[in-house]
Specification:
The protein is built from nine helices and 18 strands. By secondary structure, it is α/β, with parallel strands linked by helices. The protein has three domains: about 1-155, Spo0b-associated Gtp-binding Protein, Chain: A; about 160-325, 3-Layer(aba) Sandwich (Rossmann fold); about 345-420, GTP-binding protein OBG, C-terminal domain (GMP Synthetase, Chain A, domain 3, 2-Layer Sandwich). It has a six-stranded mixed β-sheet with strand order 10-11-9-12-13-14, sandwiched between helices. Strands 3-1-8-5-6 form a five-stranded mixed β-sheet. The radius of gyration is 31 Å and the shape is elongated.
Length: about 425
Amino acid sequence: MFVDRTQVHARAGNGGAGVAAFVRAKGKPQGKPTGGNGGNGGDVVFRADDSVGTLLMYKRHPHHKAGSGTHGTGDFQHGRTGEDLILPVPSGTTIYDDSGRMVADLVEPGQQVVVLKGGRGGRGNAAFVSPKRRAPSICEQGEYGAEETFTLELKLMADAALVGFPNAGKSTFIAAVSAAKPKIADYPFTTLEPNLGVVAFDDQEFVLADIPGLIEGAAEGKGLGHEFLRHTERAQVLVILLDPAITATHPVTVQRDVLLGELGDFSPELLERPRVFAVTKADLPEAEAAAKEIPEAHLVSSITGAGVRELLFAIGALVDKAERARPEREGYVLHRPVRPQFSVERSGDVWVVEGIGARRAVRFADLTNPQAADMAAERLERLGVEAALVDAGAQIGDTVRIGDLEFEFLTLDDEDVEEQ
C-alpha cells in the first residue's frame, strides 16, 4: 500500500527530576549537598532514509514518544538522558507542523531535523550551592516533553515523470523499460498509486515515475491524479504521453494543452521544466496521423518496442542536462520561529502566564520551601513577568496561574500600589 500523506503525533521525552540530598555525618544533621540532576528527555527527530519507501508505518501507527530522562539521586548521581526518537521517512518527505507551516524538506538520505526538544532535567540541590546558599534544600522538577501533530507529505524523488490521460499507456511504458510491475488493464484509472522504475540502457540510468492518469480539472481535485500531482514537483523532466486511441474526442493537441494546463494550474514552475512529448500505441492505425499533429513528438509502441529506444535517449539527455545544471546539493529548510519566553493573558478572574521561560522559573519540587519560593520570585522578576503583569493591570491579591501552579499576586509594594 502506497501512502504519501499522513499525520504523526509525536511527543518528546520528559526530563527527570533533580533531588535534594546531603552527606549525613555525626554532629552535622544537614551536611554537604549531594543531590544529582535529572536526565534530559529525548528529542524527536525526522530522518530521511532510503530504506523506507512510503509513509505506511505512520498511517498504521501515528503515535510516537521519545524516551524520558531518569531522576537524579544522592552522591552527585545524575539521571540518564532519555533516548532520542528517530523517525525514518522516505527521501523527498516534506514536514509541516500543526499550523501548516513547513518545518523541513528532507531530500537527501541522512538529512534530519529535530522537530521537538526533550524536556530539561531538573537540577538537584548540589547545583544550587553558592556563597549565598551553602546548604540549599531545593531541587527542580523535570520539564514535560513538548508534543505536536505533524503532517508528512511524500514527493517521489524521480528524474523523470510520465504524465498523461488515463489509459495513455504510462504503466505499459514503464513496465517495458524498467523492472517496475504496475497494474495494467484496458480500463481507465488502472494506476491508483505512483510507480517508480529504474531505467538503464547503454551507459545511462535514471529513475522514472508513473503518475496516475490526469483528467481536465485534476488540479482542482477531479479524478485521481490530483492526489499525486505533487510527485511531479521533484521530477527534473516531464514526459507527456498522448493517446491516439481517443483522438475522436480528444485530439493529441487538445490532450497536450489540457495536461500542460493542469500542470500549470497546480504549479506554474512545472511549465518551466524540460519536457518531451510522445504519442503512444504506435501499433494503432491512427497513431501515425496523430503524431504528425505534434512534429516534436516521438511515436512509440511499448508492445513492439518501436521508437522506445529513441525516446529513452531523449529523456536521458534532458535528465543529464538537468543534473549538470542542478545545484550540487539541496538542503532542507527550517522555519521554526523562536517562541517568546512568556505571555500574559486574562482568563476570567485569573491572569494566565504561558511560556517555557515562565514555567522553568517555577519548576521547583516544593514551592512551600522558602528558598524555592524566593528563587522563583527572583527568576520571574528577572524574566520580566512581574512588570508584564503590572503593565497588563494585575492588582495585589489577583490570582496568577503558571502551568498547574496558582498563586496570589503579592509582589507589588505599597508605593507601586499608590502609583497605580
